[in-house]
Design brief:
The chain has 405 residues and is an alpha/beta fold. The protein folds into 2 domains: 99 residues, Roll (Urease, subunit C, domain 1); 291 residues, Metal-dependent hydrolases (TIM Barrel). The protein is 34% helix and 22% strand. The strands form 3 sheets. Strands 1, 2, 3, 4, 5, 14, 15 and 16 form an 8-stranded mixed β-sheet that branches. A 4-stranded parallel β-sheet has the order 6-7-8-9. It has a 4-stranded parallel β-sheet with strand order 10-11-12-13.
């Protein structure tokens, strides 16, 4: 098949007017101007007309478990209050609720042009019942704060449930809910299985107060449920993490919102892991300004996620790009689009396979209307607010569908 569009955006190199992408099976075999590709390749021609053809978007941090919680939890006075609220909302939910929620999340992400999703699930046992319609990395989100003696068993069971998937990883939830033993076991499995790891780190002011100052609402809440607090009062969440973990490029760190001057000194000499930033969830919680420019200057790969719908309104990465540009107007639209494509691919060691249009890459493509205007093509991409009208995942054209409800 040769797919023609008014503009093709490979993400490597410049956009192509009257461009085309050749696909054979599930792989891209050629990209260039339409007349040149047609001379080099054979096959049926699909003319998308006045469209922008680009790589599918990559959601680098998401919790589809909680799609059903959209709009049910208002911003709380404190982060620990939000944790209590989400735990209360989950109290009466069962496996089928989570299966339905994950399936609804997949359908919504697909409508918004996401072709690859890094989904953290607290319920790895349910994924056998789910046929994912997108390219998916399943991360088992693991917590042992109420069962620290079971850390190794928790990690081993998650790995057993997840390893049948083509893309998977482990995600000890956060240093305040996952023990050092749980982190160590996850790292051991990751080295053995060559899989990525993820965690939430330095997300809130209360996390900073807990670890640096041994005080605050989260410190009190976790102490009240029996968490040992002897790791508190000795430094920032980041400094504790770097002291106790074997950090390398397999780590995708979500958030990294609350950092002090000493943290940046540590980061300057630290291995360069990946950072998943969720701009609208960040705004929901009112976190400190995200240190995007400093983190980029230190060599960290910044990618974009939506977080969960317990702290966001939808799963649109286009909306995340717009929110990021609103907060960081010094960025170019092209840089922001790269964070939702190239950078997410890099985070899971897939930089030559997804997030770009090039020969041998997976045929994961989306098309957006390309109305005539003076706007730059990347400005048009970021401004897009509708359902994506055309999508291909792994060489298969999908019926994107319409929103329900």
């Amino acid at each position: 098949m040769i797919i023609r569009a008014r503009t093709v955006v490979p993400m490597e190199g410049e956009p192509l007017d009257d461009g085309a992408v050749a696909v054979a099976g599930n792989k891209i075999t050629d990209v260039g101007r339409f007349d040149e590709v047609r001379q080099r390749q054979s096959g049926d021609i699909l003319d998308l007309g006045e469209q922008i053809l680009m790589p599918g978007l990559i959601n680098a941090h998401c919790h589809l478990d909680y799609t059903m919680l959209r709009g049910t939890i208002a911003p709380q006075r404190s982060f620990s209050d939000w944790i209590r609220a989400i735990n209360a909302a989950k109290a009466n939910l069962g496996d089928q609720d989570y299966i339905d929620s994950i399936n609804a999340g997949f359908a919504e992400a697909r409508r918004f042009g996401t072709t690859t999703i890094l989904n953290l699930t607290a319920f790895p046992k349910v994924i056998a019942a789910i046929k994912e319609p997108l390219r998916t990395w399943w991360f088992g989100e693991l917590i042992d704060v109420r069962n620290p003696d079971g850390a190794e068993e928790i990690a081993d069971e998650a790995a057993k449930l997840l390893k049948s998937k083509s893309g998977w990883g482990l995600a000890p939830h956060a240093p305040f809910t996952a023990s050092r033993c749980l982190y160590a076991r996850c790292e051991e499995i990751a080295r053995r299985e060559n899989i990525p790891l993820s965690t939430h780190l330095a997300e809130s002011r209360e996390e900073m107060e807990m670890f640096r100052d041994a005080t605050g609402a989260t410190f009190q809440f976790l102490g009240s449920i029996g968490r040992p607090m002897d790791d508190c009062g000795e430094g920032t969440p980041l400094s504790l993490f770097l002291r106790t973990r074997a950090i390398d490029r397999r780590w995708i760190i979500a958030h990294l919102n609350e950092l002090d001057a000493g943290d940046f000194d540590l980061l300057a000499g630290a291995p360069k892991f990946h950072v998943a930033h969720c701009p609208r969830s960040h705004a929901f919680f009112g976190h400190a300004p995200f240190a995007l420019e400093r983190l980029r200057s230190l060599g960290f790969n910044i990618c974009l996620g939506t977080d969960s719908l317990a702290s966001n309104s939808d799963l649109s990465l286009f909306a995340e790009m717009r929110e990021l540009l609103r907060k960081e107007p010094w960025l170019s639209p092209r840089e922001v689009v790269a964070m939702a494509t190239l950078n997410g691919a890099h985070a899971i060691a897939q930089r030559d396979l997804i997030g770009k249009i090039r020969p041998t890459a997976h045929a994961d493509l989306i098309a957006l209307p390309d109305a005539p205007s003076a706007a730059d093509v990347f400005e048009k991409i970021v401004a897009f607010e509708e359902n994506v009208p055309w999508m291909m995942v792994n060489g298969e054209v999908l019926n994107v569908g319409k929103p329900t409800g």
